[in-house]
Amino acid sequence: MLRQDDGTVTADETAGEVRIPAEWDDFFAYRGRVKTSSREQRQHPRFYLRTKAVLHIAATIGARPVLYNQGVIYIKDISRSGMSFLHVEQLFPMDQVCIQLENGRSLAVQVNRCRKLATQCYEVGGQFKKGQLLSETDSPRD
């Protein structure tokens, strides 16, 4: 599922791959700030960050089995306080995950919500663990 190259973890696209819904064929085309509606109340603006990353499940709530303790995810968007991503299996609120970006940076995230979009595709939203807010000048791509 994962392989190590020179000490960095990279995604192997074979096991537990997220299946992006066919109607999302333009998933990677989005750039810039995410448009919001007037009813949304957010602390920080969200920005599209369409890329692969590696997810490690650090802790789950309850004693449920987890199919993949680590695997490939697709990040949807990111803000100063959290992010959303697509994962192959359902996660639950309060689950703790660690997301390793392509640049090697790791982000600790607590899951807030999860909804099924399609077979092998769940949209997960979460907040960065306390003390890990991104600054306005901090770029997850750097």
Protein architecture, described:
The chain has 142 residues and is mainly beta. The chain contains no helices and 8 strands. The two termini are 25 Å apart. Mean pLDDT is 80; it is low at 1-15. It is globular. A 6-stranded antiparallel barrel has the order 3-4-5-8-7-6. Strands 1-2 form a two-stranded antiparallel sheet.
Q: What characteristics describe this protein?
A:
142 residues, mainly beta, 6-stranded antiparallel β-barrel, two-stranded antiparallel ribbon, 44% strand, globular, disordered N terminus
Task: Give the SSE map.
Layout lengths: L1 E4 L2 E4 L35 E13 L10 E9 L3 E6 L8 E5 L5 E13 L2 E8 L14
Antiparallel strand pairs: 1-2, 3-4, 3-6, 4-5, 5-8, 6-7, 7-8
User: Which percent band covers the strand fraction?
Assistant: 35-45%
Helix content: under 10%
Q: Work out the radius of gyration.
A: 15 Å
Class per helix and strand makeup: mainly beta
Low-confidence stretches: 1-15
Average pLDDT figure: 80
One letter per element, helices H and strands E, the order comes to: EEEEEEEE
Can you count the helices?
Answer: 0
Q: How many β strands by DSSP?
A: 8
